Amino acid sequence: MATQNKKNKKKQQNSRKRALTLVSVLGAVAAAVLLTAAIYIFSLTRSLPGIEELENPNPELASLVYSRDGKLLHKYFLKNRTYVPLDSISQYVPQALISTEDLAFYDHWGLDVRRFVLAMAENLIRGRERWHGASTITQQLAKNLFLTQERTINRKVKEFFTAVELEKTYTKDEILALYLNTVYFGSGAYGIEAAAWTYFNKPASELNLQESATLVGILKSPVAYDPSRNPENSKSRRNLILSLMKKEGAITPEQAERAMQSDIVLTYTPVTNHGLAPYFTEYIRQNLKPFSRDHDINVYRDGLRIQTTLDSRMQQYAEEAVSEHIAWVQERFDKAWKWPADLKNQFIRETSRYRDLIDKGMKGEDALKQLKADKAWVNNLLHDKTRVQVAFVALEPSTGHILAWVGGNDFSPGEYQYQFDHVWQAHRQPGSTFKPFVYTAAIDKGIPPTYQILDQPLAIEAGDEVWIARNSDKKSGGLTPLRTALSKSVNQVTVRLLHEFLTPSEVIRYAKRMGIRSDLAPNMSIALGTSEVNPLELASAFGTFANNGVWVEPNAITRIEDRFRHTVSEVEPASRTALDSTTNYVMVSMLQDVIKRGTGRAIPYRYGLRMEAGGKTGTTQNLKDAWFVGFTPQIVGVAWAGFDDERIAFTSMSYGQGARAALPIWAKFMKKCYADSTLGMENQYFHMPDNIIAVPVSRTTNRPAQLFTDDVYMEYFTPKGFKKYQTQLARPAEESFLPADPGIDNGLQQTAQPYNTQ
Q: Pfam families attached here (predicted)?
């Protein structure tokens, strides 16, 4: 018995030892597990976003470009995302989101425990390979803002801790706003505002019930439920969301029924669309580069709001005017153009295909023959070469604001791809549109508009060569007043005016003061516009006439704000007094005559525009360029038509001169603007200085005459010009002579051209 007791006691001792050992082992294992878990969690939390990052999330935001009348023109972005506060989002959007994604959103603290446990149980029961995680809106926000999209345990744990921190940092409404501004809606749209514009062309605040449900439906799968690609899938998903909203009481059964019965009506504008005025917004993008460097701002990520000067209504009218008229010009050119064989072969030799064949050792004639056999390729090449190009830009003279901008013949927002912009990148000879600078210099020097100059060719020696400028109709005449010579665009009088009273350098100084920035060659042919300029600077210079002699720098941006709507920059354009106001008024009156009775008379007689306006046509040598510049006190516009390759030119004055190929664009544009009462366009008079001198003058005798006769007009003089006129009156009257055909816009014609830059 004693022995048995001893054995039992020993067994008990051994059992206690084994139990202690097991407890020790289990304790050690538990400690190790806890330590490992602690280390694991610590290592994970070290990579979680800090307090500062949580309080200042920095998603990439698109910069928005707006017209002056509040239209969204374009976006610059890496990710198409625009931040808007919750009160700028339709109430139906968060209702649809919560009803679909997170019913307990306002009750949980970042993790919906009940929903999570049910989801895990369902995953186990169904044996899913890809588990559903039942993430809350806050967890999804944590993933979108700070984490990756990978499906791992590490990411899920990080998501949980980050969601808890987000709940501690933000209110529920702030979390909703952050989520709706960061989530991806497909078609390149990040955030609800970008999605609203992409699919429905409206701000998120204006989304109706069915549109809101459609966009929330996309979140489940941006490809499968994209309404632009899969409308049936999208509609089914939308209706499911509407039923969930009805079930949760967010909307009434009647609202749900009406919305379910409606079709999805898209105004789809994908991110590949360059928006309104693509040439203009590309010009702005280029001009923002130095601003971005100076202010350490990334225009593609920092969510700027760029307020521009463009008027979307005027832009529409400009595009319509260009489209309507260039089709007419192209049709006439296509009927008249005959390809010279040498020029056709030359274009083929300039292609990369020809060069590749030569590089491979093929002889030139053989390469040419092989390529010409590919008729489809040749036809396409020659077709592109003969497309009429165009530029049109309109400015507000008093502010320099750019109101409308068409940089070429391809301005379809969906097709435009950083095209060559003829408004500011193309430098072409301005032809007779440059003549007003010559006359301005003369008027400012005291030469009156009544001064008569002989309309005869003038031979000018230049080294061993002789340059002779002729009128385009090859005709000549007698003494011609400057007013008549400018309105009829008489070359020979203009050249003689420069030769007798001015120097090329003087004319250049006036042109530069008025806004021309391009290099101008100081030679006699400058009188006829042989030095190249671009349409933007020509509009700027003529804006000086419209603005009482004050030049204002053209500008496209008025204000730039950051993502919080704080002003980063406000633009104050440069300005200066370029002309004496009396000189300016005399020139304005002479340029008005161009429209009333000169080369621009189609404006009142063909297009019925009777407002106070001045202008000038221009046609360069061999019909390579057609121009018209027109202005009123409210607006100045420049139209140019021609070809990218200057070896191609218009074939006839009947459609290719400035009065035919360019003027109608300005006229059509102005007519549309005046017809739109919302623009507030009205007939205004140009400012007349107090010291301007007005005298009734006979067109026949060029001397003072009685008022109210058909032959008499009101002539305007500067004080200096009037003194010279009085001196002329003391001499016997001389007969004046008018050009035979006042309707022809005289281009540059010459026998030798050492001064011609062509």
A: Transgly, Transpeptidase
Using the structure block, give the residue that is written with the tokens 């007094």. Answer: 577
As a whole number, mean pLDDT of residues 641-665 equals 96
DSSP state of 674: H
SS3 content of the chain, % helix, strand, coil (to 5): 50, 15, 40
pLDDT of residue 126: 59
- According to DSSP, the residues that pair with 462 across neighbouring strands are 465
Residue type at 53 in one-letter notation? E
Q: Is the pLDDT of residue 757 over 80?
A: no
Cα separation, 135 vs 150, whole angstroms: 14
Concerning whether 101 is annotated as a catalytic residue, the answer is yes
Read off the pLDDT of residues 729-739 as tens digits, 9 standing for 90 and up: 887 654 433 33
Residue whose C-alpha is closest to residue 216's, from 78, 293, 298, 101: 101
Element spanning 318, H or E: helix 312-336
CA angle 433, 435, 437 (to 5 degrees): 105
Q: 73: which 2 tokens?
A: 């023109």
CA distance 188 to 681: 40
528's enclosing H/E stretch is none
Kindly state the DSSP code that residue 466 receives in the 8-state scheme. E
Catalytic residue among 90, 101, 319, 396: 101
Cα 681 vs. chain centroid, distance in angstroms? 23
Give pLDDT tens digits for 493-533.
999 999 999 999 999 999 999 999 999 999 999 999 999 99
Strands 305-308 and 63-66: parallel
- Given the DSSP bridges, would you call strands 557-561 and 567-570 parallel, antiparallel or unpaired? antiparallel
Give dist(CA 599, CA 739) in Å, integer: 12
Bridge partner list, 61: 302
Burial class (CB in 10 A: 0-12, 13-18, 19+), 655: buried
Q: What is the residue type of 575?
A: S
Residue 131: the pLDDT is: 46
Cβ atoms < 10 Å from Cβ of 44: 16
Cα 30 to Cα 37, 39, 462, distances in angstroms: 10, 14, 104
Cα(577)–Cα(277) distance, integer angstroms:
31
DSSP string spanning 281-317? HHHHHHHHHHHHHHHT--TTTB--EEEE---HHHHHH
Three-class secondary structure of residue 584 per DSSP? helix
Give the Cα separation of 614 and 597 in Å (integer): 11
Q: How far apart are CA 564 and CA 699, in angstroms?
A: 64
- Here the tokens at position 751 are 């026998």
Q: Is 473 helix (H, G, I), strand (E, B) or coil?
A: coil
CB 634 within 8 A of CB 396: yes
List the structure tokens of 715.
Answer: 């002539």
| 8 Å CB contact between 215 and 207 | yes
DSSP H or E stretch at residue 574: none
Q: What are phi and psi of 131, to 5 degrees?
A: -75, 145
Amino acid code (one letter) for 186: G
What is the rounded distance in angstroms from the CA atom of residue 305 to the CA atom of residue 299?
A: 10
Residue 610 in tokens = 């009777």
Most confidently predicted of 179-188, 306-315, 346-355: 306-315
Phi, psi of 81 (to 5 degrees): -135, 135
Catalytic residue among 234, 312, 432, 581: 432
Q: How does pLDDT run across 673-715, given as a tens digit for each residue?
A: 999 999 999 999 999 999 999 999 999 999 999 877 889 999 9
Q: Among this protein's residues, is 432 annotated catalytic?
A: yes
The residue among 304, 220, 313, 208 whose CA lies nearest residue 265 is 208
